[in-house]
Task: structure prediction
Amino acid sequence: MKFDNANIYASLEDPKIEKDLAAALQQGKSAAELAASLEFKDANNLASCLKSFDDAEIVVNDIYTFATLIQVVDSSNEAAEQLTARADVLLSELAQLAVPLNNRLMELSDADFQRLLDEPVLTPYHFTLRHRREMAVHRLSVAEETLLKQMAVDGLQAWDDQYFKLSATIQVEINGETMGLASAFNLTQSADRDIREAAWKAIRQGWSTHQESVVAGLNAINGWRLSEFSRRSHKKDLHYLDIACHQSHIQRSTLDALLDTGYENRAVGHRAIQAMNRWNGIEDGKPWDLMAAPKETDDVEKASIPFAEAMGIICKAFGEFDPEMAEFTRMMADKGWVDADPTPNRATGAFCTSFDGAGEPRVFMTYEGTMGNVLTLAHELGHAWHAWLLRDLQPSEREYPMTLAETASIFAETLVRQALLNKAETDAEKRHILWQEAETASALLINIPARFEFEKNFVEARKSTKVSANAARKLMLGAWEKWYGNSISEYDEMFWASKLHFSIAEIGFYNYPYLFGYLFALGVYAQKDKQGDNFRFAYRELLRDTGRMSAEDCIQKHLDRDIGKAAFWQDSLDMVESSISAFEALV
Ligand SMILES: [Zn+2]
Result:
């Protein structure tokens, strides 16, 4: 399975790349000129300005994606790295060019704004324009907004780049063998407890050596954001969680309902952790046991699943729900839209991305035949199906938030897991599949909220002072204690350094959307059996609305449920609880 992106560009040397980059910048400049002379009485010109900015951005984004997909398959490719850096700068330039128009739209009176929205030509922009306007009160001057965007490339973003460079170069020694962090991380999933412990401790040691650099980055990223939010509070206070919720298209009350219900049900996650440990014969669970492979008892657990067989399993499970979803998935494989061979020099992790110009998704992962790999592949293909369903919409209607993105992926994963469970005949087979469910519950119900807790407390501490590495360790211990409680006997105090999510510059609180997506997808999944055969059409419609509605409105419209209330989340948690009960019975 190798990418075939030749229909996008022939290679990194394709002269069309330079031509497209230049044309995109020119298109952005022309749109900015038109925007400057724009009379808001004319909705047509405004629509064409907005479309020009979107189109230019798509071209540059697609070039960024093209280079990224080369880079993740071969991380030593410097030309690809340089091209992504250039695309980054150009994206910032385009965003700067759009600032004056955005500011003018924010300054319109409510009546004038509504008059514009009533024009049919602007219908595809309803959600984005309204959504942006919610932040109008926090808008800065054109000069300030432009400067912020320009400085962020080498300021805010630089700390993120430094973290990635650091994580790619740190070498650790495990049982006499020197290796990078990605290989060391794989060993933390070993079935051998001694190897896991050695790997976990080596990773912690590796990061401890660089803890001052990492904590400097966290201080800078969060300090930058706090300074920016305080500038934006000139008329009304802007809380850091308001920004996080705005980016996620949810209300603060929804976030509270999610986390509060999660906290009340944390015992479900604890039971998952303890049941996995019991199966592995562990009495005092440690952080290095959290991702342990299950003890093998028979051939079921040892068997490796070839890629073609995994695709067969996934297509069958998808097909039983929606034949078109299966057909699409087969096409992904046939057209070279999936790259999964475990070649040397690859990046770790798995993701789905899209060439928005062509409306084509791509999936990257490293497939080595485990049950976890099969579910990861299903997860990423679920993202791809989501992107595919939106391909004919205007770009302004395709930008769904992370909270809703994880719905499609976890829904797809659940389809495959359930299909495998249904056909499992022996207890060993069932336990093998439910193990994945338990691991997911442990990660999403406990680890993810602990990340949220840490980040919130870090930001609070950062308001008054720079946070030292020692203080960061203490904050992490407190966060783990709150969420893991007695389910394990030691906490991971260096997790703020080893987990890259805290060092992502572009977006803060890169954590709770996973919990949201997990429980939300289960809530959607529950409707599948209630609504029967036609649910696949309702599901497609729901996904198509994810970029043009708030999460609350989307669920209200398609499922008639209120996600601002604990009851919605409790129903999903009850589903997890029953899976964990089944798993407990089998261990
Ligand atoms: Zn995902």
